[in-house]
Predict the structure.
Amino acid sequence: MLKEYQIVIFIPSIENGGVEKNLELISNYLAKKKEINLSIVTAFKNNNFIFKKKIKFYTFNSKFNKIFNARFFRTALATLLLLRFSFKKKTIIFSFQSNIVAIIFAKIFNKKIIIRLNTSPDKYINNFFKKKFYRFFYSLSDLIIVNSKNFKKKIDSLISNNLFKKNITHIYNPCLKIKPKKIIFNFFKKNELKIINIGRLTDQKDQITLLKSFKKLIKIRPAKLLIIGNGKKRKKINNFIIENNLDNFVKLMNYKKNAVDYLNISDVFVLSSKYEGLPNVLIECLYLKKYIISTNCDTGPKEILYNGKIGTLFQVGNDKQLFKILLNINLNSNLLSNKILKAYKSFDRFDYIKNSEKYYKSISSLIKN
C-alpha cells in the first residue's frame, strides 16, 4: 500500500545545521525501503550533504538562489515547486521547515501532512495570540513528530484542550557511530584545556557568553577555544575576539563537514545556546567520550545529559557560572571519568537504525489509518 504513495519532504532551504543532518540520515534510510517513493522539495540544495540517487530532488538553479537567499523567498520558491504534487492523489507531505505553509498547502489540496518540530516551542509560541495561532494550525496536521520527551510534553499541553487533538509522537534524532579521522591541528597544545564549540554563529547559539567566560579563564588557567560555524553573528564574534586580545587563544573557523575530527581532539564541548531542540552535536559527544558542558535550556540538553548526571548544566547566559565550571574542571578526576563512561553507554538511545525505523513505521501507520 505504501508503494502507491509519493512521500514529499518539504524543506525550503538546506543549510548547514542539525535539521539538515537529520534530513540526510532520515531520508537516506527511508530511501533504502523498496516500497518508499521519496522526493525532496527545496529552493536550495546544499552539496555538503550526500543523498541516495533514488531520492528525486525538485529545486532551482543555484545561481538563481543567490539572488533570493532570504528564507522568506526560499519558502515561496519551494512552495511553487510543491505545486507539481497538488493534483497527485496519493501524496504525503513531510515538512521539515516552514510547517505552517506546508499545512496550509496540504489542506488546500487535500493531502496528508506530517510535520517535524525541531526547535523548542518556547522560542516562537510565547504569547496568547501565538498559542491560538499555532494550536489551530498544528491541529490540522495528521501527525506531529518531535525529537525529545520534554518537547512532546510542551506540544501535548499546547494541543490538549483543542477539539482536534492529533497524534503526537517523539522520535530521537538518529545518529551514526562516527569514525573521526586523525588530523594535525597545531592550535591545540599539551597541558592546555582544549575547549570546542560547534554551531551556527547566531543569537540562539550565544557564543558571546562562552567568550566572556573564556576571557576570564585564560587569566588563571592555560586553555584554548575553537569555534566552528558560519552565521550572521560572525562579525560580532570576531570583533569580540580582537577587542579582547583573544587572537592567540581563540580560533574561529568556518563550517566544516568533518567537524567531528576537531571534536575528537578536544577535551570539552561547551554548548552555550539560549534554546535548542535536540542538539546532534551533544549526541556525537556522547559517542566520542567528550565531556559536555551545556546551558540548561529548553528542550534537549538536560534530557540528553540526564539532568546533569552525565555532564554539567549551567544557566542560560550566565558567563560567571560557566567560568567557574571551566576553572574547576579536572579531566583526570574519577567523577568526570565516570560521567563520560555513563554518557557513552547512554548513546544507544539515539541509535541510527532504531530511530530511523520509527520514522518509517510512523509514515506506514499514517497510511493504514
Observations:
- The chain has two domains: 2-174+351-368, 193-350.
